[in-house]
């Protein structure tokens, strides 16, 4: 056998050292890769969870948005119906206000005074822009309520009236808005009246009615028992 050359031994030792170093590097890199792999797997799992959560949030948001759109559409539809109804109510209120103004020219003072506050609340063209239709409707209803009440009863009023060219204090019984009879304090002057579209109320003097009208007032006051009385009538409704 021949002894190994010293250089060959050194070369072998160097090669072996390099191989060991390479194995160590490979082992370290493998271990590092395993660690990185675990980190990546955990990161992937976390991201998948996050993605699933975001997808759920997006789905919920889309459903909510869809429901919101449907609700908005329903509300828009309701608003359109409400606007249409408001327009109809406004038109009706304006018609009633116009009619009330026209009729008020024929109302007797005793009734007109009772609703004067409401009449003043009927808005002019400029005021209509700022007066809510609900307020105007309530005002119209208040006037019509009083109108119906007056129309269905006999109302007694004492006031100054032109009789025979003179101003006299007379007692008047109004039968709604259709007809009225009056008599003065002396019982000498009497007559009747009815509404006129262009003159308010027209009054006619008829002294022959004095006794009958006096009894009529007494019946109203319950001073005497009710009984039949013959009086002229010309029914004119405003």
From TrEMBL:
Record InterPro entries = UCP028069
Q: Name residues in a coiled coil.
A: 37-95
| Keywords from the named record | Coiled coil
User: In terms of domain of life, where is this protein from?
Assistant: Bacteria
Identification of the protein by name: DUF3450 family protein
Q: Which organism is it from?
A: Pelagicoccus mobilis
């Amino acid at each position: 056998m021949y002894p190994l050359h010293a250089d060959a031994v050194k070369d072998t030792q160097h090669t072996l050292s390099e191989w060991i170093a390479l194995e160590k590097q490979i082992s370290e890199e493998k271990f590092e890769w395993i660690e990185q792999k675990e980190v990546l797997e955990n990161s992937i799992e976390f991201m998948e969870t996050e993605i699933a959560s975001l997808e759920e949030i997006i789905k919920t948001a889309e459903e909510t948005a869809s429901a919101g759109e449907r609700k908005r559409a329903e509300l828009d539809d309701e608003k359109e119906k409400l606007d249409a109804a408001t327009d109809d109510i406004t038109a009706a209120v304006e018609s009633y206000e116009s009619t009330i103004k026209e009729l008020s020219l024929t109302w007797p003072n005793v009734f007109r005074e009772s609703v004067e506050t409401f009449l003043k609340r009927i808005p002019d063209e400029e005021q209509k822009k700022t007066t809510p239709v609900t307020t105007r409707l309530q005002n119209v209803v208040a006037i019509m309520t009083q109108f119906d009440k007056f129309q269905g009863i006999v109302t007694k009023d004492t006031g100054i009236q032109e009789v025979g060219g003179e101003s006299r204090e007379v007692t008047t019984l109004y039968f709604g808005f259709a007809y009225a009879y009056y008599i003065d304090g002396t019982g000498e002057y009497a007559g009747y009246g009815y509404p006129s579209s262009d003159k308010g109320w027209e009054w006619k003097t008829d002294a022959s009615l004095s006794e009958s009208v006096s009894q009529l007032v007494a019946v109203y006051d319950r001073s005497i028992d009710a009984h039949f009385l013959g009086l002229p009538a010309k029914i004119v409704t405003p």
